[in-house]
Amino acid sequence: MATPAVIVPKPKAARRRLKPSLVAGMVIIGIFVLMALFPKLIAPYSPTAFDYQAILQGPTAKHLFGTDNFGRDVFSRVVWGAQLDMQIALFTTLFPFLFGTLIGSLTGYYGRWADALFGRIVDIVVTFPFLVLVIAIVAVLGPGLKNMYIAVSAVGWITYGRLLRAEVLNQKKAEYALAGRVMGYTSSRIIFRHLLPNAITPAIVYWMTDMALGILLGSSLGYLGLGAQPPTAEWGVLIADGKNFLATAWWISTFPGLAITLAGVGFSLLGDGLADLLRPRE
């Protein structure tokens, strides 16, 4: 009598669960995005409205974060500052991400003279500290957000380029890439339809973390007077406004500083969660 065949059930694919860090990061950044999109609905006062009868008042029910030396509501200025700082987080990283991804992918795939040229550019840029180089470019172009975006973009794409170059160098040795070349696929198809989707994950994860650094950089330049200019409601400008009143009106600088810290934590948690979510698994 024939022995019945034994059917071995296939193992079920592991279900990916959202990490608590990803959920927490999404919640934090979601709150700041809502503040940036609907500041009029959240802020009780205009960010530039003076009230000389409420100068340097501490946190109260009427003014949750107190008022500054012109009687402006600090809570309203922090809320409106989210609009500008989220813009800074996006615009200081979007072009470096796109341009660096493109250059890194092409350099990693073609190599040779492209790799040599890219290596010389990297050597020149990394010779100088990032912040010093950005400040120098802004000082030459002049203070303001537009020039800050130009300065950061001119330097920041290098990191994304290095990430993608390394990943594409690794991915183009894989069997699917070799098979594509054997089947006669064009280089552009191999790069953008096959290599790039498999190599871009580290750049996306770094992009989230880089947004936190973008906010810190924008706030630092605003504090130094090279970024957003007063009376614009920007967190770095708000901290600079209260630096002379730390002993008597601590709330002017403290609450914008806490907003910067919380936004940085949110983007970091988001990046950590995405790293786990996008990491390839067996």
Walk me through the topology.
Blueprint: H1 20-37, H2 39-42, H3 74-91, H4 94-110, H5 112-126, H6 130-141, H7 145-171, H8 175-182, H9 187-199, H10 201-224, H11 235-241, H12 251-278
Helix pairs in contact: 1-3, 1-12, 3-10, 3-12, 4-5, 4-7, 6-7, 7-9, 7-10, 8-9, 10-11, 10-12, 11-12
Care to describe what's here?
With 282 residues, the protein is mostly helical. It has a domain at 83-278: MetI-like fold (Orthogonal Bundle), CATH 1.10.3720.10. The chain is built from twelve helices and no strands. Helix 8 packs antiparallel against helix 9 (187-199). The longest helix has 28 residues, at 251-278. The radius of gyration is 24 Å and the shape is elongated. It starts with 19 loop residues before the first helix and ends with a helix. Mean pLDDT is 85; it is low at 5-14.
